[in-house]
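User: Show me a protein chain along with its predicted structure.
Assistant: Here is one chain, sequence first, then structure tokens.
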Amino acid sequence: MSKQRALILLHEGFEEIEAVTPIDLLSRAGVEVIQTSLSSKLSVTGRSGITIAANHFLQDVSTTNYDLVILPGGPGIMKLRQNIPLCDFLKNQLNRGSKIACICAAPLILLDAGLLSAETRYTAHPSTAGELPDATSTPVVVDGAIITSTGAGTATEFSLELVRQLAGNPVAKEIADAISWQHAV
């Protein structure tokens, strides 16, 4: 079996914990995590001023298939609204069988891409309730290939779910134990 591959989309103003936690936990699970910039430079600065170096620009890796695409939230999401290339990329990845994971305000991009139907179960940060009134308050929601989470405080739970999705329950449990996660896995 080939190694699982995840792509994380880093944008100016991303929520750092929502990016670093999935990068770390998926890497521990043996998943190759490709850090991709949605900005004009490879060094991308988050909401708290922490800069992360991406490996690629989206346009350079957009034709590759991934097992999982992750979009962290944060205030930078508002500048990505109605980003047609990003929306098309997410739709194409979903159509190719990828899982799409969004946390915090990032489910707004799923809305923009037309990936949230009336039947889709999802969650999002409470600040998005005006546009996402059907979001539940559940910390992490999996509905088929779409995985959503409410925000920075759920980043570990979200990331362990991503590990579960790509590497299975035993690996997620092993990582949870290794990081002293005190909650059910």
